[in-house]
Every structure is written in C-alpha cells, then in structure tokens.
Amino acid sequence: MIVANRLPVDRVTDARGRSTWRRSPGGLVSAIEPVMRAHDGVWIGWPGGTQKFKPFKVDGLDLVPLAMSAEEIEEHYEGFSNGTLWPLYHDVVAKPEFHREWWDTYVRVNRRFAERAAELAAEGATVWVHDYQLQLVPQMLRELRPDLRIGFYLHIPFPPAELFQQLPWRRQILEGLLGADLVGFQLPGAAQNFIRLVRQRVGHKTHRDLVYLPDGRTVRAAAFPISIDAGGFAELAASDAVAERAAAIREALGNPRRIFLGIDRLDYTKGIYARLRAFGELISDGALTVEDAVFVQVAVPSRERVEHYRNLRDDIERLVGRINGDLGRIGRPAVSYLHTSYPREEMAALYRAADIMVVTPYRDGMNLVAKEYVACRTDEDGALVLSEFAGAADELRQAWLVNPYDMNGMKAALLEAYHAEPKELSRRMRAMRKQIAQHDVKAWADSFMTELEDDAAHSHSKTVRPATRS
Ligand code: GDG
C-alpha cells in the first residue's frame, strides 16, 4: 500500500465537457507501479480539490481518494506543509510560519490518512508512506495496526538540528517518523541529522543508522537517492518526433550558438531569480551577446494560492522584463520565459535542444530535472551547471558545480560551460550518463522495498543491542 499526499492522477475535462482521470506524468508512479501490481497494491491519496470520490481504478491501479475540505487544503497543505515545513526543511530560504491552527489541522489530516490505511491494509501488509505532508502517519498507523511493515520516504531535505529545533512540534514529528521500520532520505547527511535529533530530542539510544526504542523495536534511517526512468527518457529523446521538435525549437529561437535552459517549478528554493541575473550580467558585461546565446526559462506554475509564491512570480517576471528591455533586440530576447507546464515529449525536446542546462537551487532534496537532462543527452554532449546544494550533486560530480549564492562563481561556470570543448563535454557527460543508467528509479524502488521487507523480517533477531543500552 502506498500512502502519499496526492493520488497519481489528475482530473481532466475533455472537449465534450466530460471529466475523467488521467495518470499524472512522473517517474515515481512508473517506479512504484510494478511493485503495486505484483502485490495487488492500493494507493491512498488526495485527488486534489474538495470533491469526494469513491475508490476507482485507472490503468489497473487501485486508487483510494481521500477528500480534503477547503479549510484542510488551506491549513494542512498550503499552511503547515508548504508554509511551515517546506521552508524549514529547505535551509529556511524563506521564513517558516508557525501557527497552532495549522498544526492542529496537520494532525487531523494525518490521522485520517492513517485511519483509512489501517482500515484497508491486509494482515501483515507493507505500507510505504511518502513525504513531508504525512510525517505523523507512521506512528498513528502503527498504533492502529502493529502487524504492518511500515516504510517512510522523505523526498525533500531533512534539516540539521540547528534549524529543525525551531519547530514547536519537533518532538511529535520525530516520534511520528519513528513509527516506521525504515525511514528513507535522499542523502546520508539527512539520515544522520534525523538520528542525531532522535538521540538529542527524544532521548532514544542510537547506533550508526539504527534507533533502539524502549519497546524493543528498532528503526533504521538511511539514504536512498531517488532517480528517474533513465531508459525511458533516453528512448523518448532519441525518437524522430523529439529530434524534429528539438530542431524546430532551435530554429524558432533564431539558431543561436548556444541555448541555456532552466526548467523548475516556480519555487523560491530553485534559485531562478539569481541564475537569470547571472545570465543578464554576462550579456551586459559583453561576455555573451543575444545573437549567440539565449536563456530559455520554463517556470512551471506551483502553489499559486500561497502569497510567497505569487510575490516570487512577480519578482522573476519583473527581472525578465528588465533584462529583455535593457539587453534584447527585435526578435532576439535575452530570456525566453514560459510560465506553463508541458507534456513529457516537449520536455524531452527542450532537454535535447539545450546546450547548457542550468540547475541552481539554494537547496533541493534531489532535483530530477538535472538527471532527466543527462538521460536525454544520448549523443553524450551538452553541459550541466548544477548547484552544490541539490542532492543530485552527490552523484553528478562531473557537472559544473556552483554555489548559487556566489554570483561571480555562477557567472564563471556559465561561461566555462559555454566555451567548453566537445571533448570535455563528452568526457563529463559520459560519466554522468553511466551513473544514472546504473542508478535508475527502478533500482531506487527495489532497494527501498527490499530493505524494508528484509528489515521487518529481521527486526527482532538481527539487531544486537549496543553494550551501552541499559
Ligand atoms: C521534489 C523535491 C526531488 C516539471 N515540469 C514539468 C514536468 N516536470 C517534472 C520534471 C521532474 C519533476 O516534475 C520535478 O522534479 P524535481 O526533482 O526537479 O523537483 P520537485 O518538484 O521540487 O520535487 C526534489 C523530487 O521531489 C523527487 O523526490 O528530486 O528535490 O523537491 O520529473 O520533469 N513534467 C512535465 N511537464 C512539465 O511542465 N511533464
């Protein structure tokens, strides 16, 4: 059983006004789908909106929708999840807001997810809970159903103690997560942050990646870096249709020497503003010209009802207007800005058309866009400029790694990537492609599930308690 904030489908209305469900794009669903099919699994999640639906099937997936009221969307999803936890877990890039009513609603919604899961899970079933919106579910579920194996995976960073400490409900969140047998993070550092906090704040004994609970149970915290369907992306990018579309994109941009590309949800953690500023400065400095280079920035609409996000959009759009007004020529904008989302084929064509992919978040759990770009470069060319603060930087070591707070450093990396020789590009790209081919999303899902099932089977026999435990 999968328990996640969102169901993997969107409600769409066709030309004749009829509504149906469509599978949402994304690697997570395709990674988990085979596991779900093999085990007759169900997926519990919010279908979006406030409408109530009965359980249904899409492409053979069993889906159980859990409705939210308008108040719950505001306080659980937009409030506590995206106004408190999201900024707190991303290095407080923005200031987290702490509101007691948001917390109360977070607890209530988590309880509803746990109760529904407890009602539907088969005897001894394995339940995989996902992400920061549902951190209390593991503990709540375990209380209701001690027979279950419970795994939890956090898709975003887990902050160091110095920041997590700010949270008025820090202990409840840690205890919530400790309901799981296995807690998975993107990076080893996040798992270590968690273990340290459990020791300091909850007072349990820990040893390396294990937590020893007073009731004899052990919980393991470890890194499982998420990935993409690398083969699927490569195949799509190599198709004739995508190749033609990529050529058409270059043509429409006026066949510049180099195309820079950014694709991000419009989020303040992604560093869109600073990267566009760096690019604009390169043009005003005379290091690049609008005849030779263009920056295509796709900003995918996100969390548009949250004020912070609306302000960010205004800031970015004002900057794009200023850069193009000051530096562009007729038919030659410096930045080609698109506030929209695209089908997967168009994403692949953009990746294929771009010479330099620019991924510069201030903090990011992983960043799948960086991996998708690499997967789509089947000719082993193209440059990746990547923030050191994206989880992906741990694996994609051959990218041009940058500190997104360092404007001059970022400018230098963009220029180096712009001028890099084909040999240098292919050396780097080949190494990165090898990494993601070996570590794709299937390998990720398999390793988590294997570890979870194995862990549960041995949780009482395999753990030798450390001598220090009383
Ligand atoms: C969170 C964490 C972590 C984007 N625009 C379109 C589109 N996308 C797809 C991309 C990519 C995904 O959405 C975005 O994933 P990211 O990893 O880049 O970022 P977040 O949304 O912040 O994801 C992150 C991730 O969870 C997984 O654990 O890596 O760190 O923040 O797959 O391709 N897809 C389509 N049209 C678009 O316009 N079809």
Protein described:
This protein has 470 residues and is α/β, with parallel strands linked by helices. The protein folds into two domains: 2-226 and 443-461, Rossmann fold (3-Layer(aba) Sandwich), CATH 3.40.50; 230-438, Rossmann fold (3-Layer(aba) Sandwich). It is built from 16 helices and 18 strands. The chain has helices at residues 27-38, 70-89, 100-120, 137-144, 161-164, 170-177, 188-202, 230-238, 240-252, 272-285, 307-327, 344-353, 368-376, 407-419, 422-438, 441-458; strands spanning 2-6, 9-13, 19-23, 42-46, 56-58, 61-65, 126-130, 149-153, 182-185, 205-207, 210-212, 218-223, 258-265, 293-300, 335-338, 356-359, 383-387, 400-402. A ten-stranded mixed sheet has the order 5-6-4-1-7-8-9-12-11-10, with helices on both faces. Helix 1 crosses helix 16, helix 8 (230-238) crosses helix 13 (368-376) and helix 10 crosses helix 14 (407-419). The longest helix is centred in the first third of the chain and has 21 residues, at 100-120. The radius of gyration is 23 Å and the shape is globular. The two termini are 36 Å apart. The model is unreliable at 460-470 (pLDDT under 50). The structure holds GDP-alpha-D-glucose (GDG). Residues 25-26, 155-156, 226, 263, 265, 300, 341-344, 347, 364-369, 372 line the site of GDP-alpha-D-glucose. GDP-alpha-D-glucose (GDG) binds at residues 25-26, 155-156, 226, 263, 265, 300, 341-344, 347, 364-369, 372.
